[in-house]
Amino acid sequence: MNVKRRVFEFVLAAAVAAVPLSALAAKVSVTDAWVRALPGNAAGYFTLTNTGDTAITLTGIKTDACGMAMLHKTSMGGGMASMSMVDTIPLRPHETVKFAPAGYHVMCMSPTAAVKPGAKVTMTLLFADKTENAVVFAVKNAAGR
Known about the structure:
This protein has about 140 residues and is mostly beta strands. It is built from two helices and ten strands. It has helices at about 5-20, 20-25, and strands spanning about 30-40, 40-50, 55-60, 65-75, 80-85, 90, 95-100, 105-110, 120-125, 130-140. A hairpin with a 2-residue loop joins β1 and β2. The longest helix has 16 residues, at about 5-20. The chain is globular, with a radius of gyration of 19 Å. Mean pLDDT is about 85; it is low at about 5-25.
């Protein structure tokens, strides 16, 4: 066996070992991604589907479009709506979770000038297995247009 082939096999083996097995197994689909621009803050919505055969867990979101981006959920209790931060959102295999007004959403505190109706911003979904998924969100006005 020649030296070039051994070097190639070593590099290939190192590359395969560097990819977490969970990253290969988990598959994610993100659709209908949009941001509602509001005075002083913004909210992100999308549909997240685990298309794989293993459970996945969404653990956060990052973006340069906001001073701080957090996973939130709106809940009803005693006739009043309240919002709370959510640390994780687990998805079983083939499960879909909709991020929508009055439910799960991304709270975008201190949005930058990039968050204006008609623009597009990128937000990166973070998962427990250390995989990341960058998604382009269309920015819409308060009415969702």
